[in-house]
Design brief:
The complex is a heterodimer of chains A (678) and B (339). By secondary structure, chain A is α+β, with helices and mostly antiparallel strands. Chain A has 25 helices and 14 strands. Chain B has 12 helices and 11 strands. By secondary structure, chain B is an alpha/beta fold. In chain B, helix 4 crosses helix 12. The chains are: A alpha+beta (678), B alpha/beta (339). At the A-B interface, helix 7, helix 14, helix 20 and helix 24 of A face helix 1, strand 2, helix 3, helix 4 and strand 7 of B.
């Protein structure tokens, strides 16, 4: 796992290969590679860039009645009398502003214009309307049949309800204006920043302590602590929310510790987010601490520097890029997090939950798109800064660096051990409580144990079927995702020529990291659910879930593959070329076998994340493709909280099993990697 | 070969695409998950060869899904979803009017006013309070009997209600208070109630579940969930507030553009049939065909008499404005205000 994040340090260094003196002619291999670059590039464009662009376009679209292009005539017994366009007639008919009117109802019937079938004092004998606009101006229907543009449609007094004008769309920044003039929504920006910054501070401190204890002390049980620190990665983040309720809710086991204050709101969100972001921060900081230069510490000792001073002047600066990177990763994860605040946020609104509320609760897709755009801003900024910072770390280590090995120090080892016990204890407590709650008959009044909640009978979300769907999806994601990512990374790293195409592919591969899952999901609705889109066929299928998950978790996988490939000499390709061997043969005979452990890491990463993700798929699942983590969310929504806990635990055990298989396979592969050892 | 066909071929190869099978209808529903198997069994026994594929979610989500899929409908029928939602879908021109066989037995107030009706109501569900008796005893508090009682200071922080923006039940409550108390007094009531409400939940059943587990002892929810949880052993009592209660229908309609209209019609026929009514009667106190109504275990007998004269058209037409006002007043107070 440590490998998964580490590569972020070097990847931006990619640029044009050092200019060769002789430019070789593009051969068959080059054309093949270019074709693959374009194919994977096209995949990322279609699964990422286009949907996002489409969503942005849609966020500036507002429903409205095109009063100006609708003509109206009434007959009060002496032939038709023109009232002009609806725009002209609006004040007289008591119509609201075109946008307000469309917000009330997407259709306007003639009955609404002429209540009681009267025009002023006189009874109507007929009404005629015609729409002379385009498709975006709406539709005019009589009895459900759409009229052609410019065609008069006529309705008698009894048919007034059947003469319907449906709202069209106009381009406008109205959604953005509505957003910023609604304090209920803009409050969320501040709230999101508050919980994200708090979480970042706590997580980074805790993760630093934990990583320091593991890398720089001689305390016992390091392997166990390292394993426990990974637990949160194996469960859906909303599990933390559920456990916090069982621990500190109004009927919570440890309610007394809250001293009268409530877990619902910011405290719960921060606590839950610290839980699930902890392993991510820990991995990055542990990697940073692992690569420090022992010679600096020797120098400090030789100069009789105090341990405190050494810590602040040697240890911290050495790990600063790791800490900064961890901080940005935690910040991004928290501000885009949806499961925890959904469960334990109470009335404390945050941006990610706002998107869900707008889309799912209020059917307001345009406003969901607006909040998505708002959420993209901090996520993208954090991402870019992180990239810039990590890119600088490359220069830190010199070839002569000596790896640091900690020496025994009783007091330090003991306090480190104690600290790790507390942190690991808290992580296990969260997991254990969810396990307990899922096994209890009726919380908190009947605490006898039973497996009843694992039957998932009469609950929302799809029960066992959704679990098997998740397994299937995670398997597809792991297999297809690893293949796509690996080939993509190979082309970026080992391709010759067409530097621009490869840099473009690399840029696209880095993008998903900055895109919150919910935003991606919403963008997919807009893009794939459009009937005009030929890719519409995948909407509502397992394929769209697989595509969105592969794309959502692309970046980390890509970076992992790049690191492994960078470690391989480019000479392999050169030698193969000189021996007139096709590049495909090098790839399958040399590159792939050497990098098999990395490919396995990527597959495991994909599998575990596909099992736990909610955000990337919550808008996209269909009846036959309900998913386990989404089922847990829906059960919690419906108040079947124990069922939700049971589903989360099921996911945990599955991921634990996958992890074990991964460990076994890696061990098996270790023998094939024996050549690495001299 | 275009990219589409490659993708489609790949999807087909992997068995990823969920193709519609003959004799299968996709039914979107907001009915409670625990009663779906019963409906499915009854329908499929009557029409062997036709199977139901459920998409079950809360009212808001189902409506949102249908609207999102407007240009590319995935559902054949929407079954058991609030009439106010179906009015919204009808406004978008998404419903296929159809008069099911036996629709004459259904009371007029359960039907869309057009002929043939765009949607048909089969039974009703109504607001109810779920009150945890064990917790009230612990706190030595009386069981509230009316909406007005809920604003008393002793209930501060004990009440949960669904957010009307996302929950059909929540909207039902708000629109009924505006109708019972009148616009001005209605909002004044909600101002007072808001002071006592601990949190607004996403779904309508969650307040009752939270009351059942004692997390928050008073849940503003609906009668079906209350009866269910009491039967499961929750220390709850269902209270019908004295001023009257809001209600809505479980209404059904065919989605325009379905490629399986024949089977969709069969399901609509079943939904108003006598055997279906007998099934509804086990869970719901108020039916579209009143002849089959029977008292429900664990629910107050006066339920039906307390239903307000709900103006659905008014509620649907003013939904956006009401929700906007509600959010302006109560959603903005999103600081961790209540301990």
């Amino acid at each position: 796992m440590a490998r998964l994040r580490a590569p972020s340090m070097a990847d931006l260094a990619l640029g044009a290969p050092s200019a060769p003196l002789i430019r070789p002619k593009a051969g068959r291999d080059d054309r093949l590679m270019l074709a693959f670059v374009l194919m994977i590039g096209a995949y990322l464009v279609v699964s990422l860039a286009l949907p996002l662009g489409f969503m942005l376009w849609k966020s500036a679209e507002v429903r409205a009645f095109a009063y100006g292009v609708v003509e109206l005539q009434v007959d009060v017994g002496q032939g038709f009398l023109s009232l002009g366009t609806l725009e002209e007639a609006a004040p007289r008919l008591g119509l609201a502003d075109p946008v307000d009117q469309a917000r009330r109802s997407a259709s306007l019937t003639a009955a609404q214009l002429f209540p009681d079938a009267r025009f002023g004092e006189r009874p109507l004998s007929a009404v005629r309307m015609r729409l002379s606009g385009g498709a975006s101006d709406g539709v005019l229907e009589l009895g459900g049949k759409a009229a052609a543009s410019g065609e008069w449609v006529e309705a008698g007094p009894r048919d007034l309800r059947r003469l319907v004008l449906r709202a069209g769309t106009i381009r406008s920044l109205g959604n953005y204006i509505a957003y910023f003039s609604n304090p209920a929504l803009t409050n969320s920006i501040v709230n999101s920043l508050v919980v994200s910054l708090s979480t970042t501070l706590i997580t980074v401190l805790a993760a630093f302590g934990f990583a320091y204890a593991l890398q720089r002390t001689c305390m016992p049980l390091k392997g166990l602590f390292r394993t426990i620190a990974m637990v949160p990665i194996l469960v859906p983040s909303l599990l933390a929310g559920l456990s916090l309720v069982y621990l500190f809710g109004n009927q919570g086991l440890l309610k007394g510790l809250m001293m009268g204050s409530s877990i619902y709101g910011a405290p719960g969100i921060v606590a839950g987010c610290v839980f699930f972001t902890f392993p991510h921060a820990f991995l990055i900081i542990a990697t940073a601490l692992a690569i420090s230069d022992a010679r600096l510490f020797e120098a400090a000792r030789a100069l009789r520097t105090s341990p405190t001073r050494t810590f602040f002047n040697v240890t911290l600066p050495g790990a600063r890029y790791g800490v900064i990177s961890a901080a940005f990763v935690v910040f991004t994860l928290t501000i885009t997090e949806f499961g925890v605040p959904k469960v334990v946020g109470g009335d404390y609104n945050v941006l990610a939950v706002d998107i869900y509320k707008q889309v799912v609760g209020q059917q307001n897709f345009a406003m969901g798109a607006v909040v998505s755009v708002i959420l993209l801003v901090p996520a993208v900024i954090a991402f870019v800064v992180d990239r810039l910072v990590t890119a600088r770390q490359v220069a830190l280590l010199t070839a002569r660096a000596v790896p640091y090995a900690p020496s025994r120090n009783r007091a330090l080892d003991a306090s480190a051990f104690l600290f790790c016990c507390v942190v690991a204890g808290l992580l296990l407590l969260v997991l254990g409580v969810a396990q307990y709650a899922s096994l209890v008959k009726f919380w908190p009044y009947n605490l006898t144990l039973s497996f009843a909640h694992f039957a998932f009978e009469g609950v929302d979300g799809g029960g066992w079927e959704s679990y098997f769907n998740s397994l299937r999806m995670a398997f597809y994601v792991a297999v297809i995702g690893t293949a796509v990512v690996f080939v993509g990374a190979y082309l970026v790293e080992k391709g010759r020529g067409f530097a621009a195409a490869r840099a473009g592919l690399h840029f696209l591969a880095m993008m998903p990291m900055a895109i919150p899952g919910l935003v991606l999901g919403l963008a997919y609705i807009f893009f794939f659910n459009d009937r005009a889109n030929p890719l519409n066929v995948v909407y509502g299928t397992m394929a769209i879930l697989v595509i969105s998950s592969i794309t959502h978790f692309y970046t980390v996988s890509h970076l992992t593959a790049l690191t492994a490939l960078k470690a391989m000499d480019k000479e392999f390709e050169a030698v193969a070329a000189s021996l007139k061997q096709p590049v495909t043969r090098v790839f399958t005979r040399v590159t792939l076998p050497v990098c098999l452990p990395t490919a396995l890491d990527i597959a495991a990463y994909y599998f575990v994340n596909a099992m736990t993700t909610v955000s990337a798929v919550v808008f996209l699942y269909a009846p036959s493709t309900t998913l386990a983590a989404v089922a847990a969310l829906n059960m919690d929504d419906a108040g079947q909280i124990q069922g939700a806990a049971a589903m989360c635990m099921l996911i945990f055990y599955t991921n634990l099993g996958a992890r074990m298989v991964h460990a076994l396979l890696s061990r098996g592969l270790a023998r094939t990697q024996a050549w690495r050892i001299r | 070969m275009t990219r589409t066909t490659i993708l489609a071929a790949a999807a087909a190869f992997l068995g990823l695409a969920g193709a519609a099978t003959a004799g299968e209808i996709t039914v979107y529903t907001a009915l409670e998950a625990d009663i779906l198997p019963v409906y499915k069994k009854s329908f499929e026994e009557k029409h062997p060869g036709t199977t139901i594929r459920w998409v079950r979610d809360s009212t808001g989500i189902i409506t949102a899904k249908l609207l999102a899929e407007k240009n590319n409908p995935q559902a054949d029928v929407v079954l058991g979803t609030a009439a106010t939602s179906l009015l919204l879908l009808d406004a978008e021109g998404m419903l296929q009017p159809y008069a099911p066989e036996g629709v004459k037995k259904i009371e007029a107030r359960f039907l869309d006013k057009n002929t043939p009706p765009a949607w048909v109501g089969t039974n009703a569900w109504a607001a109810a309070l779920c009150v945890n008796t064990a917790e009230m005893e612990k706190r030595k508090l009386p069981i509230p009997a009316s909406w007005a009682d809920l604003t008393k200071p002793e209930y501060k922080g004990l009440i949960v209600m669904p957010n009307p923006a996302s929950s059909g039940t929540g909207f039902l409550d708000v629109s009924s208070w505006l109708q019972i108390f009148g616009e001005e007094k209605g909002w004044a009531y909600m101002d007072a109630l808001d002071k006592n409400v601990a949190t607004y939940t996403h779904s309508g059943s969650k307040p009752c579940s939270l009351a059942a587990s004692g997390e928050y002892p008073i849940g503003i929810s609906f009668e079906f969930r209350a009866a269910r949880l009491i039967n499961q052993g929750a220390p709850l009592v269902a209270v019908i507030p004295a001023e009257g209660i809001g209600w809505d229908m479980e209404a059904s309609a065919i989605i325009k553009g379905t490629d399986n209209e024949a089977d969709a019609k069969k399901l609509m026929d079943w939904a108003v049939s006598d055997e279906a009514m007998k099934i509804y009667a086990k869970n719901y106190a108020i039916l579209g065909n009143a002849a089959f109504e029977e008292p429900i275990k664990n629910l107050p007998a006066n339920l039906k008499t307390k239903l307000i004269d709900n103006k659905f058209d008014w509620a649907a037409a003013n939904r956006a404005a009401i929700l906007q006002e509600w959010q302006r007043r109560y959603d903005a107070k999103s600081e961790p205000k209540k301990g």
